[in-house]
Model the fold of this input.
Amino acid sequence: MDGLDDVFGDLYANVDAVVLFSPSGSYYERFTDIEDLDLIVIGTENAVGAETFVELPLAFDDIRERIKFGLEGALEQDLIDGGDELLCATNTFSDSIDTLSRVRADAEAHTGIYDLFVKSRAEPEVVKAVLELAIELGKKGQKGKPVGALFVVGDAGKVMNKSRPLSYNPFEKSHVHVGDPIVNVMLKEFSRLDGAFVISDAGKIVSAYRYLEPSAEGVDIPKGLGARHMAGGAITRDTNAITIVLSESDGLVRAFKAGELILEVDPEAY
Amino acid sequence: MDWQTLIDEPAVIAAAVLALGIVVGYLVGRLNEELLTASGVPETVEGTPFERTAQSIGTSTVGIVARLSSWFIYGIAVLTAIHIAQLLDTDAFWLRVTEFIPQVFIAVLVLIIGFIVADKAELVVGEYLRGVKLPEVSVLPKLVKYTVLYVTLIIALGQIGVHVVALLILLTVYALGLVFVGSLAFKDFLVSSAAGIYLLLNQPYGIGDRIRIGEQTGIVQEVDLFVTKIEDESEEYIVPNRKVFEDGIVRIRE
Done:
């Protein structure tokens, strides 16, 4: 089997850093013993207590998405530089690490996905909770039927001033926050309502039934998306909020920030 | 040698009492164990050092408490048997012992409960403060633990009749100090949270309203228990809720 080292050695020759995706504790320990090795751990939580850690907001199923997002986070935190050769160790078929890929970090391919979570006004957990909710809603629909939904997250004060109520606000004088399981059920039920949900920086659900009134000029979103996406995209240009939109027609979950489409995920893939 | 004389024999009655005591003691022990298990005590004490120590010597907290009640009844049975058999002619001793034994029993029980409560409190406080990554904070759980242990000790000692006045005075001074320092340190928090409860319940202003508190004017972005966040064009003010009551709120309507 010695011959294999010669063939596959190219894969890890002269890499600038090794990137471990959600390693197990013992696996990580083995790497820390190696000297002169830049080690970066990426995962949904820092289970191994690594020093250099990049958090993934979702357990991306698609390995390319996972690496792309993780490396963008690492670039953002200045852990790596553009052009660095990286050896990414991740899992594809089993729960433990079984795949190696050599990736060149590309500083140009900045999509802002990482910013969406970490540099938004709203707290990362809130963004994560809303995104998970939208994905779940997209997967199951409401009582089996596909639904659309529009969540405006963060900068709620300004958003409220740039929108008007379509009907009585069911969340008036309530103190519910996203992330509670019971609240998710509630939001699912309310998702048949028209209009947007407004969620504050700290995750408080401020209102449902909001009609967003941003000025839509200069909003660059792909043609073919409907009024919900247009409204969702436009409000992020006028305020510092981000929006997470579940499309009723194609079932995709999209996130907008600063008037631009930043993330597009298929709920079925999770 | 017929039955009548046999039954009248003190030694026989003593033996009978002893046997009865052992049976009742065993049964009470078992009953206690069942009751404690049914009421979820094992889950509650799980993870405390006391339970771990108990586990390492091959028993459990429930086991120890149950065993204790058994031994308490065994002890009474033995003493009663001795008394009946008149092995020792010690009326005075007997009187003291009957008073003393329940007290010791309760004292031991209090100690066990105290240890568990102290450990549990340490765990809970430690868990709660885990988010605060400051090494100094790790003193707090210990402080809670030893406070509980100290109170337990006083109760236990008081139970078996040791004079605890000095310890009580120490406890009072400590508690007063804690209350005094605590209320001084958290005064603003307490006032703010009291105001915050009013704000959250009555919502005189909500997210999106334009208000003025003191000199700060802006749109409300967030209201929580302690602070209200208001924001104007470029600045975000985080105003303690007590200011809302000191300065009043101005709602601005165009």
Q: What stands out?
A: Chain B is about 70% helix and 10% strand. The radius of gyration of chain B is 30 Å.
